[in-house]
Specification:
Layout (H helix, E strand, L loop, with lengths): L2 E6 L3 H11 L11 E7 L16 E2 L2 H5 L6 E4 L7 H10 L3 E4 L2 H18 L3 E2 L11 H5 L6 E8 L2 H13 L3 H10 L8 H4 L2 H15 L9 E2 L7 H9 L2 E11 L13 E11 L11 E9 L2 E8 L3 H21 L29 E11 L4 H11 L4 E10 L2 E8 L2 E2 H13 L3 E10 L2
Parallel strand pairs: 1-2, 1-4, 2-3, 4-5, 5-6, 8-10
Antiparallel strand pairs: 7-9, 7-11, 9-10, 11-12, 13-15, 13-16, 13-17, 14-15
The structure holds NADP nicotinamide-adenine-dinucleotide phosphate (NAP) and L-homoserine.
C-alpha cells in the first residue's frame, strides 16, 4: 500500500522533508510506503536541491488541494495566509495534514482542530516546536500521565544562536543574525525570532497541550532580545549567569488566601538570567531544550537541534509516518496490519562487530620503576602495537615507583590489549592500576 504526499513548499524544511522521503533506506520501513506526489512552490524557475520529476512541481496550489490522489498534505510554506486557508481546505477535502507552521497553529489551532474532528482527519505539528526535538507527542502521550506543573523552554534557535555567540565572542547582534539567516534558522521575517514572537507561538502551543485547554495567543507576555547588550551578557557571566530567551508556562498553585482552586497559568517569553548550574544554562547555539516538570515524574529535559533543514524535516516526516501508520490500520481487512509503530517484531539479527575491531582512545594509569630508560622502553612497546600517545603525565613517586597517566590516540581494541599484555610482562612495569575507554 502506498500513501501519496502533497508538499506545499520546497524551501528549507520542504527540501529536508523531500530528501528523507526520497531516500528511505535504513529508516523506518513505513517510509517505504510514502510517495511524493506533488510539490507546490512560488517560483518554478528556482534551482532546487532535490531531484524531483519536473512534473511534480507546480505553482498552482489549488491543484494540490483538490488532487484526490493525495492522502497527506504537508504545509511547509509558512506565513498566516494562504497557509491557514490551504490547511482548512485540505481538511475539508478529507486529507490529513502535517505542518511546521507555529504561527498558524498558535492562532488558529482551535479552528483547525475542530475542522479536523468534523472531517475525521488528523492534523499533526511536531515540527512547529523545537525543530527536531520530539516534544508535542511526548507531552500528549508519555508525559501526559503526569500532572504537569511547568514547561520551560529555550525554543527559538535563532535567538539562542545569537545569544550564545554574543557570549562566546562578544560579537555584535546584526552580523550574527545574518549568519543565522544564512544557516536557514531564522524566519522569513526574523523579527518574529528576535522579538520573541516565534517563541511565544511555540509556548502557546505547548501550554495548550501540557495544561489541556485553549490558549489565546495574544495572552502570552512577550519580550525579545533586541535590548540585550554585549555588556549585559558580560555582567551576567561575572555574576554566575547566562542570558537566555526563556519561554515559560507554569500552573499557578491554588490561592490559599481565597481558597481559590481555579486552574490558572502563567505564560511568558523574556530574556532571563539563568544560573550557570541550571540544566538550561548549557543549551547553546541553535539547540533548543524543553524542561518539563510534573508529578510524579519530576524533571525531564528534552534537548536537540531546534531549527534547520534536517532536524525540522525529521519532525515533519515523523508526523507523516504516524499518519501512515493510522492509514495502514484503516486499510481493508485483508491488508490490515497491527499498528506498525507499536510493533517491535523484527525478522533478522543485526551483526555486531567484535570488540577487538573497534577503535577507541584509552586512559591508562600504571606504576613503573623509577629509573632511567623506562619511558623509552614503554614507548617501544606502544610503537610495536601501532599505539600513539596523546599525553603522558607523571603523577607522583611512591618509594621506588613512579605513577604514570597516559591517554592514547584512537587505536584498535585488539592492538591495545596486546600492548597491555606486553606491558604486564615488562620488568619496568610494576602494575597497571586502571584502564578506561575515552569517548570521542
Ligand atoms: P522557506 O525556506 O522560506 O520556504 C518556503 C517555501 O514555501 C518555498 O519553497 C516557497 O516557494 C514556498 N511558498 C511560500 N509562499 C508561497 C506561496 N504563496 N505560493 C507558493 N509557494 C509558496 O521557509 P522554511 O524555513 O522552510 O519554513 C517553512 C515553515 O516551517 C514555516 O512555517 C516555518 O515557521 C516553519 N519552520 C521552519 C524551521 C526552520 O528551521 N527553517 C523550523 C521549524 C519550523 P519558492 O521556493 O518558490 O520561493
Ligand atoms: N526560526 C525558528 C527558530 C525556526 O529560530 O527557532 C524553528 O522553529
Amino acid at each position: 500500500m502506498v500513501f501519496k504526499v502533497g508538499l506545499l513548499g520546497l524551501g528549507t524544511v520542504g527540501t529536508g522533508t523531500a530528501k528523507i522521503l526520497l531516500d528511505a533506506t535504513q529508516r523506518h520501513p513505513l517510509l517505504q510506503t510514502l510517495e511524493i506526489h506533488r510539490v507546490g512552490v512560488r517560483s518554478l524557475d528556482k534551482p532546487r536541491a532535490v531531484d524531483l520529476p519536473e512534473t511534480c512541481l507546480t505553482n498552482d496550489l489549488e491543484a494540490i488541494e483538490t488532487d484526490p490522489d493525495i492522502d497527506i498534505e504537508v504545509e511547509v510554506m509558512g506565513g498566516l495566509e494562504p497557509a491557514r486557508s490551504l490547511i482548512l481546505e485540505a481538511i475539508e477535502d478529507g486529507k490529513h495534514v502535517v505542518t511546521a507552521n507555529k504561527a498558524v497553529i498558535s492562532r488558529y489551532g482551535n479552528e483547525i482542530a475542530e475542522a479536523a474532528k468534523k472531517a475525521g482527519v488528523y492534523v499533526l505539528y511536531e515540527a512547529a516546536v523545537g525543530g527536531g526535538i520530539p516534544i508535542i507527542q511526548p507531552l500528549q502521550q508519555a508525559l501526559g500521565v503526569n500532572r504537569l506543573e511547568t514547561v520551560t523552554g529555550i525554543i527559538n534557535g535563532t535567538t539562542n544562536y545569537i545569544l550564545t555567540r554574543m557570549q562566546s565572542e562578544g560579537g555584535d547582534f546584526e552580523p550574527i543574525l545574518a549568519d543565522a539567516q544564512a544557516l536557514g534558522y531564522a524566519e522569513a521575517d526574523p523579527t518574529a525570532d528576535v522579538d520573541g514572537l516565534d517563541a511565544a507561538d511555540k509556548i502557546a502551543i505547548l501550554a495548550s497541550i501540557a495544561f489541556g485547554g485553549k490558549i489565546r495567543r495574544e495572552d502570552v507576555f512577550t519580550e525579545g532580545i533586541r535590548h540585550v547588550s554585549a555588556a549585559d551578557v558580560d555582567y551576567a557571566e561575572t555574576l554566575g549567569f547566562v542570558i537566555k530567551l526563556l519561554a515559560i508556562a507554569k500552573r499557578n498553585p491554588p490561592n490559599s488566601d481565597t481558597n481559590d482552586t481555579n486552574d490558572t497559568i502563567q505564560l511568558r517569553v523574556h530574556p532571563t538570567l539563568v544560573p550557570l548550574d541550571h540544566p538550561l544554562a548549557n543549551v547553546n547555539g541553535v539547540n533548543n531544550a524543553v524542561l518539563v516538570e510534573g508529578d510524579p515524574i519530576g524533571q525531564v529535559m528534552l534537548y536537540g537541534p531546534g531549527a534547520g533543514e534536517g532536524p525540522t524535516a525529521s519532525a515533519i516526516v515523523s508526523d507523516i509516518m504516524t499518519i501512515a501508520a493510522t492509514l495502514h490500520m484503516e486499510s481493508p481487512a485483508e491488508e490490515k496490519l497491527p499498528n506498525p509503530l507499536l510493533s517491535n517484531a523484527y525478522s533478522d539479527y543485526k551483526t555486531i562487530s567484535p570488540m577487538e575491531q573497534l577503535e577507541s582512545r584509552f586512559y591508562l594509569r600504571l606504576m613503573v620503576k623509577d629509573q632511567p630508560g623506562v619511558i623509552g622502553h614503554l614507548g617501544e612497546i606502544f610503537g610495536n602495537h601501532n599505539l600513539s600517545l596523546e599525553s603522558i603525565v607523571q603523577i607522583g613517586l611512591q618509594e621506588n615507583l613512579a605513577g604514570l597517566v597516559i591517554v592514547t590516540h584512537e587505536v584498535k581494541e585488539g592492538e591495545f590489549q596486546k600492548a597491555i599484555s606486553a606491558l604486564k610482562e615488562s620488568a619496568d612495569v610494576d602494575s597497571i592500576a586502571s584502564v578506561l575507554r575515552v569517548l570521542g
